[in-house]
Amino acid sequence: MSANASVLSITKRLVERSKPTREAYLERTRKAAEEGPNRTVLSCGNLAHGFAACGTHDKEALAGDRVANLGIITAYNDMLSAHQPFETFPAQIREAAREAGGVAQVAGGVPAMCDGVTQGQPGMDLSLFSRDVIALSATVGLSHNMFDAAAYLGVCDKIVPGLVIAALTFGHLPAVFIPAGPMTSGLPNEEKVRIRQLYAEGKVGRAELLEAESKSYHGPGTCTFYGTANSNQMLMELMGFHLPGASFINPGTPLRDALTKEAAKRALAITALGNEYTPAGVMFDERSVINGLVGLHATGGSTNHTMHLIAMARAAGIVLTWEDISELSDLVPLLARVYPNGPSDVNHFHAAGGLGYLISQLLKGGLLHDDVRTVWGEGLADYAIEPKLNDDGSIAREPAPAVSANPKILSTIEKPFQDNGGLKMLTGNLGKSVVKISAVKPERHVIEAPAKVFSSQHALQAAFKAGELDRDFVAVVRFQGPRANGMPELHKMTPPLGVLQDRGFKVALVTDGRMSGASGKVPAAIHVTPEALDEGPIAKLRDGDIIRLDAVEGTLEVLVDEAEFAARAPAKADLTESEHGMGREIFANFRAIAGRADNGASVLYS
Known about the structure:
The radius of gyration is 24 Å and the shape is globular. The protein is an alpha/beta fold. Strand 7 and strand 8 form a beta hairpin. The chain has 22 helices and 14 strands. Helix 8 packs antiparallel against helix 9. The strands form three sheets. An eight-stranded mixed β-sheet has the order 7-8-12-11-10-9-13-14. Helix content is 38%, strand content 13%.
């Protein structure tokens, strides 16, 4: 099966635009492959240091140059629920490597912060930049030139994009991503949201709120809503970095352990020492990027990937734009309803048919490139499966179910939940921005109301608690961009804005900050660029200006006389509070050189 003409047209445009940088990248990758990867280029002293801590068997194996060595990059910590299961993965991977006649070593660890812990806190100002720190940290681990392939252990928000950037920087090495899986289902998402809004209104206390949150986030594994972490897992599968069916198997289960060991063996099978050499930088191409985007739109995935995918693609010499993302969204129907796009979580999604069913439907509709290379082999059709565990502990892959087990969660290509992916670019006299409307009711896709301007989410919360926001308005929260304060997520505003919308007011949000994969029922123009610190038009807005957010036509406008608006001086903000504390002072250089949101908000590819 091949992609339809519309998808092919966007792909062709991406290929043509990227040609100079992609060709240069592939040439560098080819040269790196010719020079290695092998340990014969290391001196005896270098090599002795590299395997000094290994057991006798592994030392003997690594002393030669014909045994594959798998480098493990791990984002393990036991504070982050999604990454806690990784504590035992290196031992499983080493065992699997020995069974396959190879060796595995932990090449390095990378930081992994939890945005759920840092929401509304000073540490959130480091969150976006942690992606590039992770990429840098992983490259240090791989720079020892000891490895023939790499296994990446990561799940959550900035962590997987950072690891992908590193994998593509070492594009001559095969790269297999090994997930940990989602935690089991807890308190239903709609009930969690109800308690949050009651707390915002002062109708329940902190004890009730903490009880609800603890029942929602209750064990090891990924948070079960469809935010950036689970969008990451979908992307890794559709872009071929996961083994088929690996994304949404719960941690601590026999199938999860079997998939982990199988992934290690597969990584060793696709090195340059064998007959299936699959370098990550060649495997990941323009078609892979388009497939990932199609999956993002079809599932109502995270808005963070309007930046992460651009940065990831750039690492492989591919020049992706918001225009590509928005145009593709108009072609791809929404086939999944997973919170915040619906009440169900990723476990329900998986039980309804999961990614295997989704991929089969998208292939049927001609929306995916099947003719891609993956870590499993040739063709994405191999991923239209459902993994099962055989009696002997091996993995069986059965064809994905032909019919959704729950049509309220997973629909068909013929009867989608909506005709587009709901992730659109907005343009107008306030610059460029992104809006996610897959969870927004159609009657709220166009909002025209007076602006109420804030310089922090905390100021908006204070105004809400003071009863100053019981009206129609567009909340403008500015000086939240990459260069201002690291572009934190602003989810502390979600409950009060949701309360006001439920009271019958027309409300919307315009910000140069982020809302991410948990963006919900309130229309929000986010990632506004140029940001306020760069004297973007958002810095000229004043209380009372009429703003029109039109997610149907794809526009974001302030309805002020053009000459008057042009003559206004941009506002300034005192950002000293966000320059120090919780390590923010040592990220000053990152803020100074950060790229624009529509270029990936990166310090590596600005």
